[in-house]
Specification:
Blueprint: E1 3-8, H1 10-13, H2 21-37, E2 40-45, H3 48-60, H4 65-88, H5 99-109, E3 111-114, H6 123-133, E4 138-142, H7 167-175
Parallel strand pairs: 1-2, 1-4, 2-3
Length: about 180
């Protein structure tokens, strides 16, 4: 495997509302093993429960969905900085704010950590776009659900688990999502 994108759901980092140091340590151990066999990796980190708390607060004070998304993006980037700091063992490189920056950083450092990019776009969509931009041989989505479904399994009892899904299908699926969740 030459190039990979790994999407880490923010909910995995904050299962109880606070960062889980054991998860961060085990994630970084796994990432270092991946980096030993992969030339370029982009790690996309979600906002998780912390971002959702900010979104609820932003909505309660009357902010629009674009503003809610903008706040959530900053949280996801802070999460990416936390994982990057743990990975690098100190002050992390700057968290990229564009796909181009992430690809450049992955090519120069071997590993790049990023969060969200723009309002109206989930970090899973960002991971799919990063996989296309790199271009990646592998896209891994680590989340607190069993996999990628045809719909939200928490809301739709008819949602089907997809055993395998390509980047183009993921982009189509996630392009239908609007607003912060």
């Amino acid at each position: 495997m030459d190039k990979a994108v790994i999407k880490v759901g923010g909910h995995l980092l904050f299962p109880s509302g606070l960062p889980d140091p054991d998860y961060v340590a085990s994630l970084n151990s796994a990432l270092k093993k991946c980096a030993a066999i992969t030339r370029h990796i982009i790690v996309v980190v979600g906002g998780g429960t912390v971002a959702r708390a900010y979104i609820r607060t932003a909505r309660s004070i009357g902010l629009n969905e674009g503003a809610c998304d903008a706040v959530a993006i900053l949280v996801s980037r802070a999460n990416a900085a936390l994982i990057a700091a743990a990975y690098w063992g100190g002050v992390p490189p700057r968290v990229p704010e564009t796909l181009e920056e992430a690809v450049r950083q992955a090519r120069s450092l071997g590993v790049s950590f990023m969060g969200g990019l723009q309002p109206g776009q989930s970090t899973t969509t960002v991971a799919s776009l990063a996989a296309e931009a790199l271009p990646a041989d592998l896209l891994v989505i680590a989340t607190n659900v069993k996999g990628v479904y045809t719909a939200d399994p928490k809301k739709d009892p008819n949602a089907r688990l997809l055993e395998e899904v390509d980047t183009a299908t993921l982009k189509r699926m996630f392009s239908r999502i609007t607003g912060a969740r």
